[in-house]
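Subject: Sanity check before I submit

Could someone independently write out the structure tokens for this chain? I want to compare against mine line by line before I put it in a report. The sequence has 210 residues.
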Amino acid sequence: MRRLACLLAIIPLSLIVVGCGHKSLKGRGVDSLSAQEHLTLGSIYEKKGKPDLALREYQTALEKDPHFLQAMIRLGELSYLQGQYTQAERYYRKAIKRAPQDGDLYNNLCWVYLSQGRKLKKAEKLIVRAMELTPEHRGYYLDTLGAIYIEEHRYREAIAVLEESVTLFDESQGTLLSQVYRRLGLAYERIGEQSKAENALKKARDLLDQ
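---
Independent answer below. Compare away.
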């Protein structure tokens, strides 16, 4: 989402490492691994920088358990990171149907649309819904909404929500806060507020230097 969009900051792998000594048996006869074990194996491949193998394991996990939410989420995120936006959209839509009260999933789907510059009105509705469902992540969602407004050239509206967003993070979240300030600097620059743009960009830089 954060690009990386906030999307990458707020969805952890959340996996329990089990069965690490196994190898995928797909194509070798009977597959004795559970859906959870395939998910775990996929996470190991992902950490080792082998996304294609990770995707295979996540897909197998979902085939074994079509209702496996974590497999849907990992497939959505990894597809997104690889620029496979059609697949990412499909998996996030599946995940939302499975967990319709999880605002983070709506946020991540917004970033799929944002990264393509399409369905921005739909993305705006999704992020508003996310704020209703998971208000404790409002800071992340306001950053996403600011990105939507910037993409739509609604710079003053972007400034309003991004100014609120920065108040909801502290300096221990420097990378995220820096990202919001960079967006805020861009929005100020686009309306000709050069001094405010420079100030926001300086804050973004200083946060990364800490």
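---
OP: Matches mine. For the report I'm noting this point. Residues 174-190 form the longest helix (17 residues).
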